[in-house]
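Milestone M4 deliverable, item 7.
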Amino acid sequence: MNKRLFKYILSGAFGTLLLAGSSCTANFEEINRPGENITDEEYGRDNFKLQSYFSQMIENVLSPQENSFQMNENLIGDVYGRYMTTANDAWNGSNFSVYNAQNSWIKYPFNDVMQKFTTPWYAVKESTDENSTVWAWAKILRVAAMHRLIDMYGALPYTQVTSESITVPYDDMKTAYHAMLDDLTSAIETLTVYLSSSSDALMPDADVVYKGDMNKWVKFANSLKLRLAMRLRGVEPEYAQQMAEEAVGHSIGVITSNADAPRYPYPGNSPIWKMCTSWGDARAAADIVSYMVGYQDPRLSLYFNSVTFSGFDGTYAGLRSGSTLTSKAWADQYSCPAGEMDDDYLWMTAAEVAFLKAEGALYNWNMGGSTAEALYEEGITLSFDQWGASGASAYMENSTNTPADYSDPSGKLSTSAVSTITVKWENGDTEKSLERIITQKWIAMYPLGQEAWSEYRRTGYPRFFSLAEQPVSYPTLTTVAARIPFNPDEYTNNPNNINSSTVQQLLGGKDDYSTKLYWAK
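Output delivered:
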Protein backbone atom coordinates (compact mmCIF):
# COMPACT_ATOMS: atom_id res chain seq x y z
CA MET A 1 0.00 0.00 0.00
CA ASN A 2 1.15 3.55 -0.75
CA LYS A 3 2.89 4.76 2.42
CA ARG A 4 1.66 8.31 1.94
CA LEU A 5 -1.89 7.07 2.35
CA PHE A 6 -1.46 4.16 4.75
CA LYS A 7 -0.74 6.38 7.74
CA TYR A 8 -4.25 7.80 7.54
CA ILE A 9 -5.84 4.39 7.91
CA LEU A 10 -3.95 3.87 11.14
CA SER A 11 -4.64 7.31 12.61
CA GLY A 12 -8.30 7.24 11.58
CA ALA A 13 -8.94 3.76 12.88
CA PHE A 14 -7.48 4.53 16.29
CA GLY A 15 -9.35 7.84 16.37
CA THR A 16 -12.63 6.00 15.90
CA LEU A 17 -12.33 3.79 18.96
CA LEU A 18 -14.40 6.18 21.00
CA LEU A 19 -17.16 6.10 18.40
CA ALA A 20 -17.20 2.36 18.04
CA GLY A 21 -18.19 1.59 21.62
CA SER A 22 -17.48 -1.40 23.81
CA SER A 23 -19.62 -3.74 21.73
CA CYS A 24 -17.09 -3.50 18.91
CA THR A 25 -14.21 -5.10 20.80
CA ALA A 26 -15.83 -8.47 21.47
CA ASN A 27 -15.25 -9.77 17.93
CA PHE A 28 -12.13 -7.75 17.18
CA GLU A 29 -10.01 -10.71 16.11
CA GLU A 30 -12.74 -12.14 13.92
CA ILE A 31 -13.43 -8.89 12.11
CA ASN A 32 -9.75 -8.08 11.66
CA ARG A 33 -8.73 -11.50 10.42
CA PRO A 34 -6.23 -11.11 7.58
CA GLY A 35 -6.65 -12.10 3.98
CA GLU A 36 -10.45 -12.03 3.67
CA ASN A 37 -13.03 -9.51 2.58
CA ILE A 38 -15.85 -8.46 4.84
CA THR A 39 -18.93 -10.55 4.32
CA ASP A 40 -22.54 -9.41 3.98
CA GLU A 41 -23.25 -10.49 7.56
CA GLU A 42 -20.53 -8.15 8.80
CA TYR A 43 -22.08 -4.98 7.43
CA GLY A 44 -23.96 -4.43 10.70
CA ARG A 45 -23.47 -1.94 13.47
CA ASP A 46 -20.82 -3.91 15.36
CA ASN A 47 -18.23 -3.90 12.57
CA PHE A 48 -15.32 -1.95 13.99
CA LYS A 49 -13.38 -2.05 10.74
CA LEU A 50 -16.10 -0.55 8.57
CA GLN A 51 -17.11 1.93 11.25
CA SER A 52 -13.58 3.29 11.32
CA TYR A 53 -13.62 3.80 7.56
CA PHE A 54 -17.02 5.47 7.48
CA SER A 55 -16.33 7.75 10.40
CA GLN A 56 -13.16 8.91 8.60
CA MET A 57 -15.02 9.55 5.34
CA ILE A 58 -17.82 11.44 7.08
CA GLU A 59 -15.29 13.52 8.99
CA ASN A 60 -13.46 14.52 5.81
CA VAL A 61 -16.47 15.73 3.85
CA LEU A 62 -16.02 18.97 5.80
CA SER A 63 -13.38 18.49 8.45
CA PRO A 64 -14.22 19.38 12.07
CA GLN A 65 -10.55 19.79 12.92
CA GLU A 66 -10.09 23.54 13.28
CA ASN A 67 -6.91 23.88 11.22
CA SER A 68 -8.31 21.78 8.40
CA PHE A 69 -11.57 23.70 8.45
CA GLN A 70 -9.79 27.03 8.29
CA MET A 71 -7.50 25.98 5.43
CA ASN A 72 -10.09 24.05 3.39
CA GLU A 73 -13.15 26.23 3.90
CA ASN A 74 -12.78 29.49 5.78
CA LEU A 75 -9.80 31.01 3.96
CA ILE A 76 -11.10 29.99 0.52
CA GLY A 77 -14.85 29.49 0.25
CA ASP A 78 -15.91 31.89 3.01
CA VAL A 79 -13.69 34.62 1.55
CA TYR A 80 -14.57 34.07 -2.12
CA GLY A 81 -18.24 33.51 -1.28
CA ARG A 82 -18.20 36.93 0.41
CA TYR A 83 -19.51 35.73 3.73
CA MET A 84 -16.29 36.57 5.60
CA THR A 85 -12.95 38.21 5.07
CA THR A 86 -9.75 39.00 6.95
CA ALA A 87 -7.51 41.98 7.39
CA ASN A 88 -5.23 41.94 4.38
CA ASP A 89 -2.10 42.44 6.45
CA ALA A 90 -2.81 39.08 8.11
CA TRP A 91 -0.31 36.41 7.07
CA ASN A 92 1.90 39.20 5.68
CA GLY A 93 -0.64 40.10 3.02
CA SER A 94 -0.39 36.68 1.39
CA ASN A 95 -3.88 35.22 1.16
CA PHE A 96 -6.55 34.04 -1.26
CA SER A 97 -8.58 37.28 -1.35
CA VAL A 98 -5.85 39.04 -3.35
CA TYR A 99 -4.73 35.98 -5.33
CA ASN A 100 -1.32 35.50 -3.79
CA ALA A 101 -1.83 32.71 -1.26
CA GLN A 102 1.33 30.93 -0.28
CA ASN A 103 1.93 27.49 -1.75
CA SER A 104 1.27 25.76 1.56
CA TRP A 105 -2.27 27.16 1.43
CA ILE A 106 -2.85 26.28 -2.21
CA LYS A 107 -1.90 22.65 -1.80
CA TYR A 108 -3.56 22.13 1.57
CA PRO A 109 -7.05 20.99 0.42
CA PHE A 110 -5.58 18.45 -1.99
CA ASN A 111 -3.04 17.08 0.47
CA ASP A 112 -5.51 17.05 3.34
CA VAL A 113 -8.94 16.02 2.05
CA MET A 114 -7.89 14.08 -1.05
CA GLN A 115 -5.53 11.81 0.86
CA LYS A 116 -7.50 11.44 4.07
CA PHE A 117 -10.72 10.63 2.25
CA THR A 118 -9.29 8.36 -0.45
CA THR A 119 -7.66 6.01 2.04
CA PRO A 120 -10.80 4.79 3.86
CA TRP A 121 -12.85 5.00 0.65
CA TYR A 122 -10.48 2.66 -1.12
CA ALA A 123 -10.42 0.34 1.89
CA VAL A 124 -14.22 0.05 1.68
CA LYS A 125 -13.99 -0.54 -2.06
CA GLU A 126 -11.55 -3.42 -1.52
CA SER A 127 -13.51 -4.92 1.36
CA THR A 128 -17.07 -4.86 0.04
CA ASP A 129 -19.11 -5.93 -2.94
CA GLU A 130 -19.79 -3.32 -5.63
CA ASN A 131 -23.53 -3.95 -5.26
CA SER A 132 -23.58 -3.62 -1.47
CA THR A 133 -25.41 -0.95 0.48
CA VAL A 134 -22.24 0.20 2.23
CA TRP A 135 -20.44 0.71 -1.07
CA ALA A 136 -23.40 2.78 -2.28
CA TRP A 137 -23.16 4.88 0.89
CA ALA A 138 -19.41 5.30 0.38
CA LYS A 139 -20.01 6.62 -3.15
CA ILE A 140 -22.39 9.28 -1.83
CA LEU A 141 -19.81 10.41 0.71
CA ARG A 142 -17.11 10.50 -1.95
CA VAL A 143 -19.13 12.82 -4.18
CA ALA A 144 -19.96 15.01 -1.18
CA ALA A 145 -16.25 15.48 -0.49
CA MET A 146 -14.73 15.44 -3.97
CA HIS A 147 -17.07 17.83 -5.77
CA ARG A 148 -15.89 20.53 -3.38
CA LEU A 149 -12.26 19.94 -4.37
CA ILE A 150 -13.07 19.75 -8.08
CA ASP A 151 -14.92 23.05 -7.79
CA MET A 152 -11.85 24.60 -6.14
CA TYR A 153 -9.16 23.37 -8.53
CA GLY A 154 -11.14 22.76 -11.73
CA ALA A 155 -9.87 19.20 -12.28
CA LEU A 156 -8.98 16.26 -10.05
CA PRO A 157 -8.09 12.55 -10.14
CA TYR A 158 -11.46 10.81 -9.85
CA THR A 159 -12.36 8.06 -12.31
CA GLN A 160 -8.90 6.51 -12.37
CA VAL A 161 -8.27 6.36 -8.63
CA THR A 162 -8.48 2.58 -8.64
CA SER A 163 -5.61 1.71 -6.34
CA GLU A 164 -4.13 3.01 -3.12
CA SER A 165 -2.27 5.72 -5.03
CA ILE A 166 -3.72 9.06 -6.10
CA THR A 167 -0.80 9.63 -8.48
CA VAL A 168 -3.00 9.00 -11.52
CA PRO A 169 -4.37 10.99 -14.47
CA TYR A 170 -6.67 13.93 -13.73
CA ASP A 171 -10.21 14.13 -15.04
CA ASP A 172 -11.39 17.36 -16.61
CA MET A 173 -14.44 18.84 -14.95
CA LYS A 174 -16.96 17.53 -17.48
CA THR A 175 -15.70 13.97 -17.10
CA ALA A 176 -15.58 14.22 -13.32
CA TYR A 177 -19.08 15.68 -13.07
CA HIS A 178 -20.58 12.98 -15.26
CA ALA A 179 -18.80 10.33 -13.18
CA MET A 180 -20.03 11.83 -9.92
CA LEU A 181 -23.60 12.01 -11.19
CA ASP A 182 -23.32 8.37 -12.32
CA ASP A 183 -22.04 7.42 -8.86
CA LEU A 184 -24.94 9.21 -7.17
CA THR A 185 -27.49 7.63 -9.51
CA SER A 186 -26.23 4.10 -8.92
CA ALA A 187 -25.93 4.65 -5.16
CA ILE A 188 -29.47 5.98 -4.98
CA GLU A 189 -30.76 2.96 -6.90
CA THR A 190 -28.97 0.50 -4.60
CA LEU A 191 -30.15 2.15 -1.41
CA THR A 192 -33.70 2.51 -2.71
CA VAL A 193 -33.83 -1.24 -3.23
CA TYR A 194 -32.47 -1.75 0.28
CA LEU A 195 -35.10 0.57 1.76
CA SER A 196 -37.90 -1.23 -0.05
CA SER A 197 -37.42 -4.19 2.29
CA SER A 198 -35.60 -2.80 5.34
CA SER A 199 -35.59 0.29 7.52
CA ASP A 200 -32.62 -0.86 9.59
CA ALA A 201 -29.95 1.75 10.22
CA LEU A 202 -26.47 0.98 8.94
CA MET A 203 -23.63 1.49 11.43
CA PRO A 204 -25.36 4.24 13.45
CA ASP A 205 -22.43 4.50 15.85
CA ALA A 206 -20.14 5.60 13.02
CA ASP A 207 -22.59 8.09 11.52
CA VAL A 208 -22.76 11.38 13.42
CA VAL A 209 -24.82 12.98 10.64
CA TYR A 210 -27.84 10.70 10.16
CA LYS A 211 -27.20 7.82 12.59
CA GLY A 212 -27.24 5.33 9.72
CA ASP A 213 -30.68 6.36 8.42
CA MET A 214 -30.42 5.42 4.74
CA ASN A 215 -33.67 7.16 3.87
CA LYS A 216 -32.09 10.46 4.83
CA TRP A 217 -28.87 9.59 3.01
CA VAL A 218 -30.90 8.99 -0.17
CA LYS A 219 -32.59 12.38 0.23
CA PHE A 220 -29.17 13.96 0.62
CA ALA A 221 -27.85 12.07 -2.43
CA ASN A 222 -30.78 13.25 -4.54
CA SER A 223 -30.24 16.81 -3.31
CA LEU A 224 -26.54 16.56 -4.13
CA LYS A 225 -27.48 15.24 -7.57
CA LEU A 226 -29.74 18.27 -8.04
CA ARG A 227 -26.92 20.62 -6.96
CA LEU A 228 -24.46 19.09 -9.43
CA ALA A 229 -27.04 19.02 -12.21
CA MET A 230 -27.73 22.72 -11.77
CA ARG A 231 -24.03 23.46 -12.05
CA LEU A 232 -24.21 22.16 -15.63
CA ARG A 233 -27.35 24.05 -16.65
CA GLY A 234 -25.46 26.64 -18.69
CA VAL A 235 -23.17 24.24 -20.54
CA GLU A 236 -25.18 20.99 -20.82
CA PRO A 237 -28.82 22.06 -20.41
CA GLU A 238 -30.50 18.85 -21.60
CA TYR A 239 -28.32 16.55 -19.52
CA ALA A 240 -28.62 18.87 -16.52
CA GLN A 241 -32.40 18.88 -16.80
CA GLN A 242 -32.50 15.08 -17.01
CA MET A 243 -30.38 14.67 -13.88
CA ALA A 244 -32.31 17.32 -11.95
CA GLU A 245 -35.71 15.90 -12.83
CA GLU A 246 -34.54 12.41 -11.87
CA ALA A 247 -33.46 13.69 -8.46
CA VAL A 248 -36.65 15.61 -7.71
CA GLY A 249 -38.94 12.94 -9.19
CA HIS A 250 -37.34 10.04 -7.32
CA SER A 251 -39.66 8.07 -5.04
CA ILE A 252 -37.77 9.19 -1.92
CA GLY A 253 -36.96 12.58 -3.36
CA VAL A 254 -34.83 15.46 -2.12
CA ILE A 255 -34.50 17.29 1.19
CA THR A 256 -37.63 19.35 1.82
CA SER A 257 -37.47 19.98 5.58
CA ASN A 258 -34.84 21.38 7.91
CA ALA A 259 -35.03 18.17 9.95
CA ASP A 260 -33.55 16.23 7.02
CA ALA A 261 -30.64 18.58 6.33
CA PRO A 262 -27.25 16.96 7.03
CA ARG A 263 -25.68 18.38 10.19
CA TYR A 264 -22.23 17.66 11.55
CA PRO A 265 -21.94 18.24 15.32
CA TYR A 266 -19.01 20.24 16.64
CA PRO A 267 -19.43 20.04 20.44
CA GLY A 268 -17.30 22.71 22.08
CA ASN A 269 -15.43 23.52 18.88
CA SER A 270 -17.80 25.06 16.35
CA PRO A 271 -15.74 26.26 13.37
CA ILE A 272 -17.47 29.63 13.06
CA TRP A 273 -16.92 30.31 16.75
CA LYS A 274 -13.32 29.13 16.47
CA MET A 275 -12.42 31.22 13.38
CA CYS A 276 -14.17 34.38 14.50
CA THR A 277 -14.54 34.57 18.27
CA SER A 278 -11.74 32.38 19.61
CA TRP A 279 -9.01 33.15 17.06
CA GLY A 280 -10.30 36.44 15.67
CA ASP A 281 -9.07 35.50 12.19
CA ALA A 282 -12.31 36.27 10.32
CA ARG A 283 -14.78 39.10 10.10
CA ALA A 284 -18.09 39.45 8.28
CA ALA A 285 -17.78 40.45 4.64
CA ALA A 286 -19.15 43.84 3.68
CA ASP A 287 -21.18 42.27 0.87
CA ILE A 288 -23.58 40.06 2.82
CA VAL A 289 -24.02 42.54 5.67
CA SER A 290 -24.88 45.32 3.22
CA TYR A 291 -27.48 43.17 1.46
CA MET A 292 -29.08 42.17 4.76
CA VAL A 293 -29.02 45.73 6.15
CA GLY A 294 -30.71 47.00 3.01
CA TYR A 295 -33.36 44.30 3.12
CA GLN A 296 -33.89 44.87 6.88
CA ASP A 297 -33.40 41.14 7.15
CA PRO A 298 -34.53 39.73 10.54
CA ARG A 299 -31.76 37.11 10.31
CA LEU A 300 -29.01 39.74 10.45
CA SER A 301 -28.52 39.65 14.24
CA LEU A 302 -28.51 35.83 14.11
CA TYR A 303 -25.75 35.78 11.49
CA PHE A 304 -23.53 38.59 12.81
CA ASN A 305 -22.67 40.66 15.84
CA SER A 306 -22.62 44.46 15.71
CA VAL A 307 -19.44 46.47 15.26
CA THR A 308 -17.30 47.62 18.16
CA PHE A 309 -16.28 50.96 16.60
CA SER A 310 -16.75 53.74 19.13
CA GLY A 311 -19.99 55.60 18.54
CA PHE A 312 -21.52 52.95 16.29
CA ASP A 313 -23.32 50.87 18.89
CA GLY A 314 -25.89 48.51 17.38
CA THR A 315 -24.55 49.05 13.86
CA TYR A 316 -23.68 46.17 11.55
CA ALA A 317 -20.85 46.52 9.05
CA GLY A 318 -18.64 43.97 7.37
CA LEU A 319 -15.12 44.51 6.09
CA ARG A 320 -14.47 44.96 2.37
CA SER A 321 -12.29 42.32 0.81
CA GLY A 322 -8.85 43.20 -0.53
CA SER A 323 -7.96 46.27 1.48
CA THR A 324 -4.32 46.84 2.45
CA LEU A 325 -5.35 49.69 4.73
CA THR A 326 -6.26 47.33 7.51
CA SER A 327 -4.42 45.88 10.45
CA LYS A 328 -5.78 42.91 12.33
CA ALA A 329 -6.51 44.99 15.44
CA TRP A 330 -8.33 47.55 13.32
CA ALA A 331 -10.28 44.86 11.45
CA ASP A 332 -11.44 43.32 14.73
CA GLN A 333 -13.80 46.27 15.18
CA TYR A 334 -16.02 45.10 12.31
CA SER A 335 -18.98 42.74 12.70
CA CYS A 336 -18.00 39.27 13.77
CA PRO A 337 -19.97 36.24 12.56
CA ALA A 338 -22.17 35.13 15.44
CA GLY A 339 -21.82 31.62 16.75
CA GLU A 340 -21.67 29.50 19.86
CA MET A 341 -19.11 26.88 20.80
CA ASP A 342 -21.55 23.99 20.33
CA ASP A 343 -23.19 25.01 17.05
CA ASP A 344 -23.66 22.29 14.44
CA TYR A 345 -22.49 22.87 10.87
CA LEU A 346 -24.70 22.01 7.91
CA TRP A 347 -23.38 20.39 4.74
CA MET A 348 -26.47 21.53 2.84
CA THR A 349 -29.54 23.49 3.84
CA ALA A 350 -33.12 22.62 2.98
CA ALA A 351 -33.45 26.19 1.72
CA GLU A 352 -30.70 25.60 -0.85
CA VAL A 353 -32.64 22.64 -2.26
CA ALA A 354 -35.80 24.74 -2.59
CA PHE A 355 -33.89 27.46 -4.42
CA LEU A 356 -32.32 24.87 -6.73
CA LYS A 357 -35.81 23.70 -7.60
CA ALA A 358 -36.92 27.30 -8.07
CA GLU A 359 -34.18 27.84 -10.63
CA GLY A 360 -35.15 24.66 -12.43
CA ALA A 361 -38.80 25.69 -12.52
CA LEU A 362 -37.78 29.12 -13.87
CA TYR A 363 -36.41 27.31 -16.94
CA ASN A 364 -39.48 25.07 -17.23
CA TRP A 365 -37.96 21.95 -15.73
CA ASN A 366 -40.34 19.63 -13.91
CA MET A 367 -39.57 20.36 -10.27
CA GLY A 368 -42.51 18.48 -8.78
CA GLY A 369 -45.23 20.65 -10.22
CA SER A 370 -44.44 23.80 -8.22
CA THR A 371 -43.82 27.20 -9.77
CA ALA A 372 -40.58 29.11 -9.48
CA GLU A 373 -42.32 31.70 -7.31
CA ALA A 374 -43.71 29.11 -4.88
CA LEU A 375 -40.33 27.38 -4.56
CA TYR A 376 -38.53 30.72 -4.13
CA GLU A 377 -40.82 31.61 -1.25
CA GLU A 378 -40.43 28.10 0.17
CA GLY A 379 -36.67 28.63 0.25
CA ILE A 380 -36.99 31.89 2.18
CA THR A 381 -39.47 30.34 4.62
CA LEU A 382 -37.23 27.33 5.25
CA SER A 383 -34.27 29.60 5.97
CA PHE A 384 -36.23 31.73 8.43
CA ASP A 385 -37.43 28.58 10.18
CA GLN A 386 -33.90 27.15 10.26
CA TRP A 387 -32.61 30.23 12.06
CA GLY A 388 -35.67 30.69 14.28
CA ALA A 389 -36.36 34.10 12.74
CA SER A 390 -39.80 35.64 12.46
CA GLY A 391 -41.24 37.89 9.77
CA ALA A 392 -40.73 35.76 6.65
CA SER A 393 -44.07 36.78 5.11
CA ALA A 394 -43.44 40.51 5.48
CA TYR A 395 -39.88 40.05 4.19
CA MET A 396 -41.11 38.28 1.03
CA GLU A 397 -43.74 40.94 0.36
CA ASN A 398 -41.32 43.86 0.46
CA SER A 399 -40.98 45.37 -3.01
CA THR A 400 -39.02 48.50 -2.11
CA ASN A 401 -36.01 47.54 0.00
CA THR A 402 -32.79 47.04 -1.96
CA PRO A 403 -29.20 46.20 -0.93
CA ALA A 404 -27.69 49.07 1.02
CA ASP A 405 -24.72 51.21 0.15
CA TYR A 406 -21.69 50.14 2.14
CA SER A 407 -21.12 52.63 4.92
CA ASP A 408 -17.73 51.95 6.46
CA PRO A 409 -17.57 52.99 10.13
CA SER A 410 -13.92 53.90 9.63
CA GLY A 411 -14.77 56.16 6.69
CA LYS A 412 -12.09 54.54 4.53
CA LEU A 413 -13.81 51.94 2.36
CA SER A 414 -17.40 53.11 1.78
CA THR A 415 -18.91 52.37 -1.63
CA SER A 416 -22.26 52.34 -3.42
CA ALA A 417 -24.54 49.33 -3.66
CA VAL A 418 -24.00 47.17 -6.74
CA SER A 419 -27.53 45.77 -7.06
CA THR A 420 -31.08 47.10 -6.95
CA ILE A 421 -32.78 43.70 -6.80
CA THR A 422 -35.73 43.53 -4.41
CA VAL A 423 -37.08 40.57 -2.44
CA LYS A 424 -40.69 40.39 -3.65
CA TRP A 425 -41.15 38.04 -6.59
CA GLU A 426 -41.97 39.57 -9.96
CA ASN A 427 -42.93 37.64 -13.07
CA GLY A 428 -41.83 38.49 -16.57
CA ASP A 429 -38.07 39.05 -16.55
CA THR A 430 -36.20 35.74 -16.39
CA GLU A 431 -32.80 37.29 -15.73
CA LYS A 432 -34.08 39.43 -12.88
CA SER A 433 -35.84 36.37 -11.47
CA LEU A 434 -32.57 34.43 -11.60
CA GLU A 435 -30.75 37.23 -9.77
CA ARG A 436 -33.53 37.28 -7.17
CA ILE A 437 -33.34 33.49 -6.67
CA ILE A 438 -29.55 33.35 -6.39
CA THR A 439 -29.37 36.42 -4.13
CA GLN A 440 -31.82 34.97 -1.63
CA LYS A 441 -30.22 31.55 -1.98
CA TRP A 442 -26.84 33.11 -1.14
CA ILE A 443 -28.23 34.70 2.01
CA ALA A 444 -29.96 31.46 3.00
CA MET A 445 -26.92 29.21 2.44
CA TYR A 446 -24.78 31.13 4.94
CA PRO A 447 -22.21 30.10 6.15
CA LEU A 448 -21.54 27.57 3.34
CA GLY A 449 -18.94 29.72 1.59
CA GLN A 450 -17.81 27.10 -0.89
CA GLU A 451 -21.33 26.91 -2.35
CA ALA A 452 -21.68 30.69 -2.34
CA TRP A 453 -18.45 31.01 -4.33
CA SER A 454 -19.53 28.33 -6.82
CA GLU A 455 -22.93 29.92 -7.40
CA TYR A 456 -21.35 33.33 -7.98
CA ARG A 457 -18.91 31.87 -10.50
CA ARG A 458 -21.70 29.98 -12.24
CA THR A 459 -24.31 32.77 -12.45
CA GLY A 460 -22.62 36.09 -11.69
CA TYR A 461 -25.05 36.55 -8.80
CA PRO A 462 -25.33 38.00 -6.28
CA ARG A 463 -23.44 41.07 -7.38
CA PHE A 464 -20.34 41.59 -5.22
CA PHE A 465 -18.40 44.72 -4.35
CA SER A 466 -15.15 45.06 -6.22
CA LEU A 467 -11.97 44.53 -4.24
CA ALA A 468 -11.05 47.55 -2.19
CA GLU A 469 -7.65 47.58 -3.91
CA GLN A 470 -7.02 45.69 -7.13
CA PRO A 471 -3.96 43.38 -7.16
CA VAL A 472 -1.58 44.31 -9.99
CA SER A 473 -0.98 40.68 -10.96
CA TYR A 474 -4.66 40.01 -11.79
CA PRO A 475 -6.22 43.27 -13.04
CA THR A 476 -9.21 41.48 -14.61
CA LEU A 477 -10.22 39.73 -11.39
CA THR A 478 -12.14 42.54 -9.77
CA THR A 479 -14.11 40.43 -7.26
CA VAL A 480 -13.14 36.79 -6.63
CA ALA A 481 -10.95 34.09 -8.17
CA ALA A 482 -12.27 31.74 -10.84
CA ARG A 483 -10.40 28.85 -9.19
CA ILE A 484 -7.28 28.19 -7.14
CA PRO A 485 -4.09 26.83 -8.74
CA PHE A 486 -3.28 23.14 -8.65
CA ASN A 487 -1.22 21.72 -5.82
CA PRO A 488 2.30 22.76 -6.89
CA ASP A 489 3.74 19.49 -5.52
CA GLU A 490 1.82 17.59 -8.19
CA TYR A 491 4.17 18.92 -10.86
CA THR A 492 6.96 16.88 -9.26
CA ASN A 493 4.95 14.06 -7.65
CA ASN A 494 2.73 13.40 -10.67
CA PRO A 495 4.62 14.88 -13.66
CA ASN A 496 3.20 12.50 -16.26
CA ASN A 497 -0.31 13.72 -15.53
CA ILE A 498 0.20 17.36 -14.57
CA ASN A 499 2.43 19.40 -16.85
CA SER A 500 2.11 22.37 -19.18
CA SER A 501 0.32 20.45 -21.92
CA THR A 502 -2.12 18.54 -19.69
CA VAL A 503 -3.09 21.71 -17.82
CA GLN A 504 -4.29 23.33 -21.04
CA GLN A 505 -6.27 20.20 -21.91
CA LEU A 506 -7.84 19.98 -18.48
CA LEU A 507 -8.69 23.64 -17.96
CA GLY A 508 -8.68 25.27 -21.37
CA GLY A 509 -6.41 27.90 -19.87
CA LYS A 510 -3.57 28.60 -17.50
CA ASP A 511 -3.07 27.10 -14.08
CA ASP A 512 -3.82 30.34 -12.27
CA TYR A 513 -6.61 32.17 -10.45
CA SER A 514 -8.25 33.58 -13.60
CA THR A 515 -9.14 30.53 -15.73
CA LYS A 516 -12.87 29.90 -15.59
CA LEU A 517 -14.19 26.45 -14.76
CA TYR A 518 -16.06 24.32 -17.29
CA TRP A 519 -19.49 25.11 -15.88
CA ALA A 520 -18.70 28.83 -15.61
CA LYS A 521 -17.54 29.42 -19.20
